[in-house]
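The following record pairs a protein chain with its ligand, zinc ion.
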Amino acid sequence: MVQFAKTNFLLSGWICIVLGASISIAVPDAIGLTVSFPLGIAGIILLIIGIRKNPEERVNIDEMRSWQPEEGPMREAGRVMYRVDTLLDPPIKTTIKCGSCGKVDWVDGGKPKSWKCPHCGIQLWEEE
Ligand SMILES: [Zn+2]
């Protein structure tokens, strides 16, 4: 996503410059200049934005780690639902969202074999 945005700026910057340059060559009079000049300026500005965006937009690991599903109950046709999300890069942590009370809990490692919600006491799952 970040990479895409940066490439977009760089690409449109180059297109503006190339377009501006070809217009000034193809239409070498005052009209050509009034079109090509702003295009060239816009292209240079876009390029500067594209290059400067790079170091500031690193993916923030801590921000990713602090992400958790929104709290709030979720139910479907009378049965209790839950949501389990596991972070795949170490240290592995798992968030468990209880569909009954809507609370989110963090556990170390992957999905536990069984889970009883500590907030409302409902057994969410149990693997034999
Ligand atoms: Zn619960």
